[in-house]
Design goal:
Elements: E1 6-8, E2 11-13, E3 33-36, E4 63-66, H1 104-122, E5 127-138, E6 141-150, E7 159-160, E8 162-169, E9 172-176, H2 183-189, H3 197-203, E10 236-237, E11 239-241, E12 256-258, E13 265-267, E14 272-278, E15 284-285, E16 296-302, E17 305-310, H4 316-319, E18 327-328, E19 333-336, E20 341-344, E21 355-362, E22 370-373, E23 391-392, H5 398-413, H6 416-439, H7 457-464, E24 478-481, E25 486-489, E26 499-512, E27 515-530, E28 533-550, E29 553-561
Parallel strand pairs: 3-5, 15-20
Antiparallel strand pairs: 1-2, 3-4, 5-6, 6-8, 7-20, 8-9, 10-23, 11-12, 12-21, 13-19, 14-16, 14-18, 16-17, 17-21, 21-22, 24-26, 25-26, 26-27, 27-28, 28-29
């Protein structure tokens, strides 16, 4: 490779070459499990008494602090292997000692043992269920606020909590999780006050709904628009609660929790009309009583087809100037992630930031009662959604989307010749950024990692690996284009071509300290094809001139090079 530097007042002639469930792991400190135990609503009748000689207390202390059993690490169960075993006399399992309902620790230990067993059978390694709160016993019923954790989550991330119901039967506690058969039946049997009414509605789809009806009269047959991940394009997050998990069961089985940290922007998955929102709360915690304090926004994407974004940060909807009835676009920022409402993690009050998103449609064609529907995001593949996968969003902002659509239209209108030239133009535009970075103070290769993919290693080294150069000009403080580049010679590449040369007429404005100069140059640029990509392999500034600046415009010519026959010629005096 030949490098020739002809220096004079700033014009450099150079020839180079030729040719990417919710809640965090419980904090290391001991969880304080508060058992809010109130008066039973009524003394149980004889028929309602548990089948045990241990009496049910009429009341517990108002608050009891318990050190819960830490959840054990779980692993994915191994498949069963059939083996032949010798016949042996059957052995009886030892009978568990009866539960003492007046001893909170025995209730907690029994519940945690149950959760550990269930977790070992259903969760991944380093995932666990843990207890956050206990309500009861009341008339033989106990409600355990339960959270899900994963050691793979970043600190501060969580998910929504759920409840495990315990029922004293024959001196033992029987348990049901939201995904278990008969769970809703137990929800309906719980004594009044043991479970917040908002959670009763959440778990029981036949309960009287407090959500407002759709503003439209019937479910439209219109196909729903494509759904994008609910955060800006380029951002990536993992799922903390999958559809069908304990957090999302029954009528909410298709909901998803994404591990967005506190304050992360939320982008609308699809355009639609804002039905309602709430963002005045700053209250949340790992307890069902916080459920009513969740901030949210509900957007109708087609008649009767709504998207719910839950647990939003206080004031984040109004901060984005969103109003009820407003029509918003896909990708528009509609709020920020938070930890309001029933959220579990290792933040204050056991809160865990995340975004709960749920698509709801009329249940059984009824308008008032809603049922969740699958969230088939554009970014999902056939095996998705999955845990421990970074999902990168393609959800462009409205401005980005319009620009992309305009570029698509432009590309469709290109002739075959223009399309063939496009890869060369892309390489040249990226080369310009690389060259300017090499000429400007404070710019390094770390600032142009994507652009460097369009120059060869040889050219990169010649621009950035110079340790000392006596004849090299000093770097500019600022370098910017001055007008549009003009392509003097630009042959159309063919599929067989591996080398190409173009000739370009361009101008730039350079600033060094208080001195400003204008450079009018004609450059030969050499390209090579590496694999499927065209790259710039070298360049040669063949002719041109340099002026100073007068009144913010090019002034007097202070240097020329090979002007005879050059495509750039200084204008006559005063023609600027």
């Amino acid at each position: 490779m030949v490098v020739v530097a002809l220096i004079g007042f700033g014009l450099v002639m150079v020839f180079v070459g030729n040719g990417g469930t919710k809640s965090t792991t419980p904090p290391s400190k001991v969880h304080v499990l508060t058992a809010t135990v109130g008066q039973p609503t009524a003394e149980p009748t004889k028929s309602e008494q548990p089948a045990t000689e241990t009496p049910v207390p009429t009341a517990w202390p108002e608050e009891i602090t318990i050190t819960p059993v830490e959840p054990t690490e779980t692993s994915t169960p191994k498949p069963a292997v059939a083996t032949k075993t010798p016949t042996a006399e059957p052995t009886l399992e030892p009978t568990k000692p009866p539960i003492n309902p007046s001893d909170p620790a025995s209730l907690v230990n029994a519940a945690q043992e149950f959760l550990d067993e269930r977790g070992a059978a259903t969760l991944l390694a380093d995932q666990a269920y843990w207890l956050a709160h206990v309500d009861g016993p009341t008339q033989g019923w106990v409600v355990f606020t339960t959270a899900f954790s994963d050691k793979a989550w970043p600190e501060g991330i969580g998910s929504g909590g759920f409840v495990t119901i315990g029922h004293l039967e024959g001196g033992q506690l029987a348990f049901r999780l939201p995904s278990d058969d008969g769970f809703i039946d137990w929800v309906r049997q719980l004594p009044s006050g043991l479970l917040p009414e908002s959670l009763r509605e959440w778990y029981d789809p036949t309960a009287e709904s407090s959500l407002e009806e759709s503003s439209l009269s019937a479910l439209d047959s219109t196909q729903p628009p494509p759904l994008y991940l609910p955060y800006p394009a380029g951002a990536k997050y993992q799922i903390t609660a999958l559809p069908g998990s304990e957090n999302h069961s029954g009528s909410h089985q298709y909901a998803i929790d994404f591990g967005l940290p506190e304050g992360a922007p939320i982008a609308a998955s699809a355009g639609g009309k804002v039905l309602s929102f709430k963002d005045d709360s700053n209250t949340g915690g790992c307890d069902g009583s916080y459920d009513q304090y969740a901030n949210y926004i509900m957007i109708e994407i087609t008649p009767g087809d709504d998207i719910l974004y839950l647990h939003l940060q206080q004031g984040s909807v109004t901060a984005n100037k969103i109003q009820v009835g407003q029509v918003i676009e896909a990708g528009q920022i509609i709020g920020a992630a938070g930890s309001t409402g029933f959220t579990c993690g290792n933040g204050p009050n056991g809160r865990g930031a995340h975004l709960h998103i749920e698509r709801s449609v009329p249940y059984n064609n009824l308008k008032r009662i809603k049922n969740s529907a699958p969230l088939n995001f554009v970014e999902f593949g056939p095996a998705d959604p999955r845990a421990r996968v970074d999902y990168v969003s393609q959800n462009l902002s409205p401005e980005q989307r319009r620009a992309a659509e305009e570029e698509k239209r432009r590309q469709e209108q290109l002739t075959a010749e223009e399309k063939a030239k496009q890869p060369i133009l892309t390489a040249f535009e990226n080369f310009n950024k690389v060259y300017w970075c090499s000429r400007v103070k404070g710019c390094s290769e770390a600032d142009i990692t994507e652009e460097l993919k369009y120059v060869t290693e040889k050219l990169r080294a010649s621009l950035f690996d110079i340790i000392f150069c006596f004849f090299c000009p000093s770097k500019d403080d600022k370098l910017e284009s001055y007008g549009e580049a003009e392509y003097i010679s630009f042959p159309v590449p063919t599929p067989e071509d591996t080398n190409l040369e173009i000739r370009v007429k361009s101008a730039s404005r350079a600033t060094v300290g208080e001195e400003v100069t204008y450079h009018f140059t004609v450059t030969n640029v050499f390209f090579v094809k590496e694999g499927d990509r065209w790259k710039v392999d070298g360049f040669e500034i063949t002719c041109g001139y340099v002026t100073n600046e007068i009144d913010g415009k090019p002034g007097e010519v202070i240097y020329t090079e090979n002007l005879e026959g050059c495509e750039w010629q200084p204008p006559s005096s005063g023609s600027w």
